[in-house]
């Protein structure tokens, strides 16, 4: 196999495992293209993007164009003479002129099982929907958003306690493991491309800050999915009196939970490849590297209880129990939600017991948007 010269397009932490996997492979990453550095922290100091930091540690040139359509930037990409482009969470739609530069084109690590959840927020939308499963697809980048043919797919269950941040870490590692064999196949001229079924496509719209307001008239399972789907951003919040409170960890108490909430078992699902690469076997995720995320699993010993046993007839948002470790809130359709951890504005995250110890809250008080 002749090693490929690769130009890598990626910016956030999600892209780092894929970049590191390519650097460790027999191929050569000849340039990394990242979005410009952004100010962070209280001092608003410019911080290198995660992929830029990795590239710098390995002596790989970094390009950070303000505009990716400018001729000067396109000339710089041509100058690295890459065979293939790899795109992982770059954050911008690549123009046709850029896609045409590498002779083998560009491929993308997309965090969903395509054609489901094309677009900007596939992980968050899957968690918000209460899906039982998500995954990663390696696909060819084409002008139409996330519509190119696929090379390989791997799936993984979504545990009932998993947040979008949890799943992002898992899928980043899974995508890295799926990526390198596809690049090897492209290098050897044996990669198989499978067209997507466009009729089954769904769109994962960008998450907005306004989605973080909790609607207590929704069933408890829906509110629970919102709490975990909007972490780490923008977070799901409510108000108690005039105070804004972010809900960090919850548990629906209704018996009518969605399939996505019930099915968690913490085990990885089967992987499949359009070229038979994985033969139905789940790919092993690296578990010996520092910082490798663990897939969260549902906690045992937390049986569901019917809301009817707690308080019948309370209006949505009403606190029906506030004692000990429990804050239980009435939701829509006769369901109830237990708040396990929460964060009052300007304070640290705390358990329900810690919150109740510091604030006078009683049954009958009511959360509101």
Q: Cα-atom Rg, whole angstroms? A: 23 Å
State the helicity in percent bands.
10-25%
The secondary structure category is alpha/beta
Give the spatial strand order of the biggest sheet.
5-2-1-6-7-9-10-14
The major beta sheet can be summarized as: 8 strands, mixed
> Which oligomeric form is depicted?
single chain
Q: In percent, how much strand structure appears in the residues?
A: 15-25%
Average pLDDT across residues? 87
Using DSSP, what is the number of strands? Answer: 19
Shape: elongated
Number of helices: 9
> Topology as H/E string?
EHEEEHEHEHEEHEEHEHEEHEEEEEHE
Uncertain runs: 255-303
Distance between the termini: 59 Å
Describe this structure in words.
With 369 residues, the protein is of the alpha/beta class. It contains nine helices and 19 strands. The chain has helices at residues 16-24, 50-57, 71-79, 96-99, 122-128, 164-187, 220-229, 259-262, 352-358; strands at 5-10, 28-33, 38-40, 45-47, 62-63, 84-88, 106-110, 118-119, 133-140, 150-157, 203-204, 237-240, 243-252, 271-273, 319-323, 326-330, 336-344, 350-351, 367-368. The protein has an eight-stranded mixed β-sheet with strand order 5-2-1-6-7-9-10-14. Strands 12, 13, 15, 16, 17, 18 and 19 form a seven-stranded antiparallel β-sheet that branches. Strand 6 (84-88), helix 4 (96-99) and strand 7 form a beta-alpha-beta unit. Helix 1 packs parallel to helix 6 and helix 5 (122-128) packs antiparallel against helix 7. It is elongated and about 70 Å long. The chain starts with a strand and ends with a strand. The model is unreliable at 255-303 (pLDDT under 50).
């Amino acid at each position: 196999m002749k090693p490929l010269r690769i130009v890598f397009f990626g910016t956030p932490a999600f892209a780092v495992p894929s970049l590191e996997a390519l650097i460790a492979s027999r191929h050569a990453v000849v340039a990394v293209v990242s979005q410009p550095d952004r100010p962070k922290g209280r001092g608003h100091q410019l911080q290198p993007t995660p992929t830029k930091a990795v590239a710098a540690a390995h002596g790989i040139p970094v390009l950070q164009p303000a505009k990716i359509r400018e001729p000067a930037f396109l000339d710089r990409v041509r100058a690295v003479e890459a065979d293939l482009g790899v795109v992982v969470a770059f954050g911008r739609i690549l123009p046709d002129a850029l896609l045409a530069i590498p002779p083998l084109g560009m491929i993308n690590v997309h965090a969903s099982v395509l054609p489901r959840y094309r677009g900007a927020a596939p992980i968050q939308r899957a968690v918000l929907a209460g899906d039982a499963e998500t995954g990663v697809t390696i696909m060819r980048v084409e002008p139409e958003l996330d519509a190119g043919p696929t090379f390989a797919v791997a799936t993984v269950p979504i545990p009932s306690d998993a947040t979008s941040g949890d799943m992002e870490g898992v899928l980043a590692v899974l995508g890295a493991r799926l990526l390198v064999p596809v690049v090897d196949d492209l290098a050897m001229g044996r990669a198989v491309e499978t067209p997507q079924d466009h009729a089954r496509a769904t769109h994962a719209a960008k998450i907005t800050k306004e989605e973080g307001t909790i609607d207590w008239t929704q069933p408890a399972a829906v509110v629970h999915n919102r709490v975990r789907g909007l972490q780490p951003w923008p977070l799901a919040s409510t108000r108690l009196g005039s105070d804004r409170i972010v809900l960090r960890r919850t548990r629906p108490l209704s018996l009518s939970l969605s399939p996505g909430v019930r099915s968690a078992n913490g085990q990885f699902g089967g992987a499949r490849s359009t070229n038979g690469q994985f033969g139905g076997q789940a790919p092993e995720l690296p578990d010996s590297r520092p910082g490798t995320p663990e897939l969260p699993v549902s906690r045992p010993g937390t049986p569901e209880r019917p809301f009817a046993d707690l308080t019948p007839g309370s209006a949505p948002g009403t606190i029906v129990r506030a004692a000990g470790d429990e804050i239980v809130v009435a939701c829509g359709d006769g369901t109830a939600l237990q708040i396990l951890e929460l964060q009052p504005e300007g304070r640290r995250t705390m358990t329900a017991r810690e919150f109740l110890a510091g604030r006078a809250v009683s049954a009958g008080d009511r959360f509101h948007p």
